[in-house]
């Protein structure tokens, strides 16, 4: 029997179910129950809204975020997806005026770096800026210490420990590099307006970043020969923003003639390409000619050699497989593959407590094995899951616990506890550091060899701990 799921005359989104075939009374009752969820039933159009009809969920989302659908004078059928897109566009426009912390809207999990402190813009002396533009080789040839001193002397804000490798160059009216930023050999950053780079960010050798405005957050790793630029790189809307702890792989290319916004902990892997406009024939002859921004939300991953086309958003936590071509939005937490990229499943699967414990035990065992391969003396810990390490005549211990209650006294030089849960307000005693590997939080004072080696090992397995920024300075690993 055929069961109608929407009322006669209702407008629906293309692809929505309007009916169902039931083979039994039970299936018929189940189908009828679906009619009560509001899907496919449009809300009344706002007064004075012209020809547009708006679903109830779309109207609620717009009202929640102060989006005036009447003023936008929309037409047709407006769904929650349309409203989410309008909110993303509003967010991009705000970012073009000045990046600030996010996420600002529902339907978009995009965390951007904050603006620099007022009064510390790093404006360069006009004469020094003119020299950089007319004879960049003169500054490029300076040794690293002299180069950093020259930038500071002429107005740039460079934090403590900034490293400008041989052959590197920064050219912009305003420059701010926070503490321990490293600019690789031969790397150039150019901007018509400003360059802002957060603490502990590292740019590898041979990079060329050229845009109207460049904003890089804290703890980024940018690989070798990465290029940001191309046609339209100095357009009025040209903007490149990358959030904290983002990874940009070797030889990636980004064209930012329209805003390109990368959220926090994004993976843009090697040889991936982001283009905000195409090069084609006349729009008036029927060819596509698109200029539009690109957004990659927090913790999304773009695979090796993947192309992301103008106007696309990749949702938070989504993964796009290597060699794909993204021509439309990818939902949050989805796995997309192919040319063109299509959603083929979920980016991750549920993890039971038992499975999580088994995975954590595997992490501990592999860390112990890796330390042993590097020549360190490692033995199983007598206290349970974990191991004991001897280094430079000192004893240290790592333990895995389900919950960090009743913390132990330190064993030897240091004790590292990996916990699957932690109570609120945890304050480990001196000599003990606790890493909540599920909530991704560090508790206690680190900085000791085993604590830092463990944190680095976790980072490389996707467990990046807060608070940050943090960079491994070397040691056991």
Overview of this structure, please?
With 477 residues, the protein is an alpha/beta fold. Helix 2 packs parallel to helix 4. The radius of gyration is 26 Å and the shape is flat. It has 9 helices and 35 strands.
Query: If you average the pLDDT, what whole number results?
Result: 85
Percent strand equals 25-35%
Biggest sheet features: 14 strands, parallel
Low-confidence stretches: 36-51, 98-107
> How many strands appear in the DSSP assignment?
35
Count of alpha and pi helical runs: 9
End-to-end distance = 66 Å
Coarse structural class: alpha/beta
Q: Supply Rg.
A: 26 Å
What's the overall geometry? Answer: flat
Percentage of residues assigned to helices: 10-25%
Which key features would you list for this structure?
flat; 10-stranded mixed β-sheet; 477 residues; 35 strands; alpha/beta
Q: Mind sketching the topology for me?
A:
Blueprint: E1 2-4, E2 19-21, H1 25-33, E3 42-43, E4 53-55, H2 56-64, H3 69-72, E5 77-78, H4 80-97, H5 126-134, H6 136-140, H7 144-153, E6 157-158, E7 163-164, E8 169-171, E9 174-177, E10 182-183, E11 188-197, E12 202-203, E13 208-216, E14 221-222, E15 227-228, E16 240-242, E17 247-248, E18 253-255, E19 260-262, E20 267-268, E21 273-275, E22 294-296, E23 301-302, E24 307-308, E25 313-314, E26 319-320, E27 325-326, E28 334-337, E29 342-346, H8 353-373, E30 377-380, E31 386-391, E32 394-401, E33 414-419, E34 432-436, E35 441-443, H9 449-460
Parallel strand pairs: 4-5, 6-9, 7-10, 8-11, 9-11, 10-12, 11-13, 12-14, 13-15, 13-16, 14-17, 15-18, 16-19, 17-20, 18-21, 19-22, 20-23, 21-24, 22-25, 23-26, 24-27, 26-28, 32-33, 33-34
Antiparallel strand pairs: 1-2, 3-4, 28-29, 30-31, 31-32, 34-35
């Amino acid at each position: 029997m055929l069961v109608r799921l929407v009322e006669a005359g209702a407008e629906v989104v293309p692809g929505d179910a309007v009916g169902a075939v039931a083979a039994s009374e039970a299936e018929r009752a189940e189908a009828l129950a679906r009619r009560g969820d509001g899907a496919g039933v449009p809300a009344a159009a706002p007064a004075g809204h012209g020809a547009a009809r708006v679903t109830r969920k779309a109207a609620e989302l717009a009202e929640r975020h102060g989006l005036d659908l009447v003023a936008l004078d929309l037409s047709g059928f407006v769904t929650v997806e349309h409203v989410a897109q309008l909110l993303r566009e509003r967010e991009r426009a705000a970012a073009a005026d000045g990046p600030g912390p996010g996420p600002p809207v529902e339907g978009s999990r995009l965390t951007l770096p904050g603006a620099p402190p007022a009064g510390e813009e790093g404006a360069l002396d006009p004469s020094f800026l003119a020299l950089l533009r007319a004879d960049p080789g003169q500054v490029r040839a300076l040794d690293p210490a002299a180069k950093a001193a020259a930038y500071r002397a002429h107005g740039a804000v460079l934090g403590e420990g900034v490293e400008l490798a041989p052959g590197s160059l920064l050219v912009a009216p305003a420059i701010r590099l926070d503490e321990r930023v490293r600019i690789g050999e031969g790397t150039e950053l150019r901007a018509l307006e400003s360059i802002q780079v957060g603490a502990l960010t590292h740019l590898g050798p041979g990079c060329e970043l050229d845009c109207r405005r460049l904003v890089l957050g804290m703890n980024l790793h940018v690989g070798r020969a990465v290029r940001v630029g191309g046609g339209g790189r100095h357009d009025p809307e040209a903007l490149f923003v990358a959030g904290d702890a983002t990874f940009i792989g070797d030889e990636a290319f980004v064209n930012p003639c329209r805003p390109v916004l990368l959220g926090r902990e994004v993976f843009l892997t090697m040889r991936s390409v982001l283009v905000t406009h195409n090069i084609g024939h006349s729009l008036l002859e029927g060819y596509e000619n698109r200029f539009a921004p690109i957004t990659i939300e927090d913790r999304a991953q773009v695979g090796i050699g993947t192309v992301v086309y103008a106007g696309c958003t990749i949702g938070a936590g989504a993964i796009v497989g290597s060699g794909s071509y993204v021509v439309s939005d990818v939902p949050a937490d989805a796995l997309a593959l192919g040319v063109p990229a299509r959603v083929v499943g979920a980016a991750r699967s549920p993890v039971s407590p038992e499975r999580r414990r088994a995975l954590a035990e595997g992490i501990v065992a592999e860390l112990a094995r890796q330390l042993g391969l590097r020549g360190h003396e490692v033995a199983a810990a007598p206290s349970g899951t974990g191991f004991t390490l001897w280094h430079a005549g000192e004893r240290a211990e790592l333990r895995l616990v389900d919950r960090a209650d009743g913390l132990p006294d330190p064993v030897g030089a240091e004790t590292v506890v990996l916990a699957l849960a932690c109570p609120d307000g945890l304050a480990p005693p001196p000599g003990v550091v606790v890493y909540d590997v599920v909530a991704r939080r560090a508790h206690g004072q680190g900085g000791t060899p085993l604590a830092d080696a463990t944190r680095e090992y976790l980072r490389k397995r996707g467990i990046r701990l807060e608070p940050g920024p943090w960079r491994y300075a070397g040691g056991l690993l």
